[in-house]
Amino acid sequence: QVQLVESGGGLVQAGGSLRLSCTASGGTFSNYGMGWFRQAPGGEREFLAAITRDGSNTYYLDSVKGRSTISRDNTKNTLFLHMNDLKPEATAVYYCNTDPTPGKTYDYWGQGTQVTVSS
User: Fold this and answer.
1) Phi, psi at residue 90, to the nearest 5°?
2) pLDDT tens digits for 69-97?
3) Which among 45, 79, 77, 74 has a CA at the least distance from the CA of 61?
4) How far is CA 66 from CA 59, 62, 103, in A?
């Protein structure tokens, strides 16, 4: 089981930027496509972005496309999400996970990292 540790969240003003990180251990990171998800207060966890194993292709939820960039460094077993022009509705706990596909359910989630965007 790959272990995932998210970090980089915090409090930011609307219009600001953050870079989230997700460090993996316990598996071969480059064997996995990776994705970012978020769960807003009182809401369900939703998919945000995905990246293929070698980083050559990326996919985004329409609402974050153009303002978020997913990337990875396989030499450091780390996944990133750079978010720009943050809006208050982006306030959520952000998570990463492996091989995101539509309808997939996960038995394991890391602790997530809290992002709070003030207006």
Assistant:
1) -80, -5
2) 999 999 999 999 999 999 999 999 999 99
3) 45
4) 11, 9, 24
